[in-house]
Design a protein that fits this description.
Layout: E1 3-7, H1 11-22, E2 26-30, E3 51-52, H2 56-61, H3 71-76, H4 79-87, E4 93-96, E5 100-103, H5 108-122, E6 125-127, E7 132-138, E8 141-147, E9 152-154, E10 157-160, H6 182-189, E11 201-207, E12 210-216
Parallel strand pairs: 1-2, 1-10, 2-6
Antiparallel strand pairs: 3-5, 4-5, 7-8, 7-12, 8-9, 11-12
Helix pairs in contact: 1-5
The protein binds flavin-adenine dinucleotide.
Flavin-adenine dinucleotide (FAD) binds next to α1.
């Protein structure tokens, strides 16, 4: 069984860990805080505007900048899919003015709790107070993650979902503006395109004959 470490317990990381577990992997989710989705709990003024039921064209039009790159993602997992994901897992939703979707409770914590329950049911090992320091790369592929304690945790693949830099008090301090290397992206998640906009610093370490590299300080 493949072991996958997902770094970051926000909505992106929780969904990635869930998908990995449902695909048959042994998935571990690392979150530096003592709970999941700290930023999620403040979204939509604490109510969490989960999605918007506008059609894909309108969604893309309303993304600041060039939102066209999101056509593919929205086509594969639409706003309706998002609603179905939550309602089929016990979260009641309502649609308000402007086709904005919120939990019926108007409480973002319910969204986080739902995600937590889903992870538990899927057998994802959630590790709190677990802060990733750097990736360990061997010949261009991720072979593990170093925790801030210095301990190396081996993995067959790593998914980095450490969020952006807004509201850093939530734990999302983002990646720093380091040198870009596609090798790290391939090693990290197997598809450089998925990490468009992120950058990492690659440090080459010599350990005996092994070509070990690490990707440092991504959050
Ligand atoms: C005030 C506000 C309101 C918003 N309202 C909405 C809304 O209503 N609807 C909406 O769709 N979006 C909203 N957003 C945007 C939404 O919050 C983000 O798009 C979303 O949280 C991004 O999810 P993420 O999983 O990529 O990152 P994040 O939610 O930022 O999660 C990243 C996680 O990674 C963890 N982490 C970081 N570094 C490490 C590390 N080294 N090791 C381990 N863990 C680490 C962090 O602690 C964090 O929990 C809002 C944002 C803000 C700031």
């Amino acid at each position: 069984m493949k072991r996958i470490i997902v770094i970051g317990g926000g909505p992106a990381g929780t969904m990635a860990a869930l998908m990995a577990a449902e695909a048959g992997a042994e998935a571990a989710l690392w979150e530096r805080n003592n709970n999941l989705g700290k930023k999620l709990t403040i979204t939509g003024k604490g109510r969490c505007n989960i999605t918007n039921l506008a059609d894909i064209g309108d969604l893309v039009k309303n993304i600041p900048g060039n939102g066209a790159f999101l056509y593919g993602a929205f086509s594969r997992f639409s706003a309706e899919d998002t609603c179905n994901f939550f309602t089929s897992r016990g979260l009641s939703l309502k649609t308000e003015r402007g086709r904005r979707v919120f939990p019926c409770s108007d409480d973002a914590h319910e969204v986080v709790d739902t995600l937590g329950r889903v992870l538990e049911r899927a057998g994802v090992e959630v590790k709190y107070h677990m802060r990733a320091k750097r990736l360990c790369l061997r010949q261009g592929k991720a072979c593990g993650v170093y925790a801030y304690s210095g301990e190396l945790h081996p993995a067959d693949a790593v998914i980095v979902a450490t969020g952006g830099v807004t509201y850093p008090a939530t734990g999302s301090t983002g990646g720093r503006a380091y040198d870009h290397s596609a090798a790290a992206f391939v090693g990290a998640i197997g598809n450089p395109g998925n990490l468009a906009g992120r950058s990492f610093r690659i440090i080459v370490e010599k350990r005996g004959n092994a070509n070990l590299r690490s990707c440092q300080d991504f959050g």
